[in-house]
Amino acid sequence: MPREKPVRRDTGSREVEYAPEQWEILSALREQALTLMTELESTGVEPIAHGSICRGDVSEHSDVDIYLPRVLPSFTVELALTQAGYQMIHRELVHATPFHAIKAHVYLPKNSVVTFPLTSPAPIELEFYRFGGSLTKQVIQNEIRVPGVDKRLVLIEPTKTGHIETPVIGNEMIVAKKVGVNLKIVEERVKILMRRDEVGRTGVYLKRQLAPEDTFESLLKQVCDRDPVVRRRVQKG
After folding, report:
1. Edge-to-edge strands of the sheet including 154-158?
2. CA 6 to chain centre
3. How far apart are CA 135 and CA 97, in angstroms?
4. Among the four 21, 146, 150, 213, which has the fewest Cβ within 10 Å?
5. End-to-end CA distance of the chain
6. What's the confidence (pLDDT) of residue 67?
7. pLDDT tens-digit map of 14-35
8. Is the CB of residue 68 less than 8 Å from the CB of residue 186?
9. What gap in Å lies between CA 64 and CA 36, rounded to an integer?
10. What is the mean pLDDT of residues 178-188?
11. Contacts of 83 (CB under 8 A, 6+ apart)
């Protein structure tokens, strides 16, 4: 699918009403997320879902994104997934910027992705997930949706029949309050997504796919041996 382009100006709010098919897709994706989250509870870390399945603005192409918000050995996550019968399609080591946590991404069938940090994330990084909308397993079970910002830089606010959407640009302070994050998070995401749209690149500092025999820790050590920026981030913890 083509990358969604950010809305660059305040065009006002509009209300979107969901068709029955969208409610069905949302229900199916949430069931998929709940099953995956239940299996990941064996890691000892409470998983959170984030993105469109938390807001409600899903499509047939939507991902099921699950995040484990604490550093833990990668074998713990992979063992939980393999014992539950999940096939790991591929695995990636990602370092967004030299200042952010280094993360592991495990890609599963049906557009499911499990992410967990390999170095300690700063508190402001954890707010990123709230920015896009995030929920625990219990809240999803209670059929609650939350506001969050999509990749177009549009605030999605759930309603009984769908959602209201409002451009972030021009409304940064309001958006920060509604999604419950620091204004700096909103400003950073606007800067990153606008830059990505302008130059056509993600701006990710490091992205490496693992070979079948690799572990995240072994690959990270190899990278550290060659890259002083990554080495300093790992030493920082």
Report:
1. 14-17, 162-167, 154-158, 148-149
2. 17
3. 25
4. 213
5. 36
6. 98
7. 999 999 999 999 999 999 999 9
8. no
9. 9
10. 93
11. 39, 42
Residues 6+ apart with CB under 8 A from 192: 203
For every residue of 20-56, DSSP letters joined together read HHHHHHHHHHHHHHHHHHHHHGGGTS--EEESHHHHS
pLDDT value for 196: 73
List the domain boundaries for the chain: 14-215
State how far the Cα of 165 lies from the Cα of 137, in Å rounded to an integer.
25
Cβ pair 124, 183 in contact under 8 A: no
- Counting beta carbons within 10 angstroms of the beta carbon of residue 12, is it exposed (0 to 12), middle (13 to 18) or buried (19 or more)? exposed
The first and second tokens of residue 86, run together, are 């999940």
Q: Per residue in 50-103, pLDDT tens?
A: 999 999 999 999 999 999 999 999 999 999 999 999 999 999 999 988 888 999
Structure tokens at 150: 């999509």
Residue type (1 letter), 205: Y
